[in-house]
Amino acid sequence: MDKSVNPNDRNNSSFDSAEKNKNFITEGPVWKGLLSFFFPILFGTVFQQLYNTADAIIVGQFAGKESLAAVAGGTAVFVTLLVGFFVGISSGAGVIVSQFYGAKNEGEVSRASHTALMLALISGAVMSVAGFLISPLAMKLIETPADFYDKSVCYLRIYFAGMIPMFVYNMGSGIFRATGDSKTPLYVLIAGCAANVVFDLLFVVVLKKDVAGAAWATVLCQTLSMILILVKMKRTSQGFRLKFSKLAVTPHLLKKMVQIGIPAGMQSVFYTISNLIIQSDVNSFGTVTAAAWAAYGRIDSIYWMTINAFAIALTTFAGQNYGAGKIARIHQGTKNGMFMGGAIALTVTFFFMLFGKAFFRLFTADSEVIQTGLCMMRFLSPFFVVYMPVELLAAVIRGTGCTFIPTVITCFGVCVLRLFWLIFIFPLNRTMLMAFACYPMTWTVTAVIFIIYYRCGKWLKDYTKSSFL
Fold it and tell me: Is the pTM of this model over 0.90?
């Protein structure tokens, strides 16, 4: 055990009471442990997506295609760029909490949780200021068309006003999930999403505030979610119970979180930069293509949020079992997760092919936008199953504390190769589908590399010797 671990912190009352309820993550059938943890995460991710999707649907139906492109196009990619970096860093906190929780070390769980919340507060404040200042430049860099440039900047600046509530809520939810509770974040999200729809209708439809109204609706609901998650943390009997007097940074734990989280955060940044370049190419085809891509981005989030839910489940599963010293169970969980993830990818593709037009009609009645979006969907969705190993294998590996190599693999396989395609191959035939072909090509290459790296087992040997245990 690491020298920072205090043996006197073990076997405290909350863990004793927790033992009365079987922890399916570290005990019992693997498939049952994964599914019992996965479904609340999935439903929670669905409601998380509904925050922005509700904005897109209501704005698209009541404010027009320019407003739809402003809310769900380049702005969404830019938000992902900045917020994704923090989410990557916060994943390091989740790994640390899950490992200490699996090892039944309550004292370190408490210190790690309070350190994580302080990290969220500081990061949220920095991101609010940075996002406000660079929003105009960001929209210029991706060549946002003039007919919705001002709306895009307006939406972004208001959206970034809510970074502290967003970050604190996400960190709190991550702590609950790291300890095996995926239901509490779900209940909070349901409440927040319901409020978001009400505020969207009020600000956009009734008060006619257009994209500004949609942004303020999201900020208010993120604030509500933050308050609810903090209240739940105050009332829990687990080791991560919130005590404001304990809010402080524990240096050695912060160092671990950053060491694990920064590679994941940088991966998200590089990943999103490549998407920003693609967004710039999409914008060059005009407003119809930009609006279609914006709507498709909301629709295909059905797949991404599902596979991301599985990734979160596998990261926590691997983290807790790693902390408990159950290495064989990690491999068994990986096999189960890959099988279920593949089935989900094929199912989503089937429904997209069958009901694609109905999905697009949720966002717009413009027939040209719908047809362009269907072309995108039918080209990309059959390759969802190819990407699945990238997300799931990386999740398992990160759960053990190994994040650097997965980041290198993803940055090369997805980001570098994607940029190569867009810079050297795409100009040879500047069509919409040629630009999008970079996705299946890079997914395939990266998946093959991850499979080889996982099977070699070096990631587990290195981190078993030197990291947590």
Answer: no
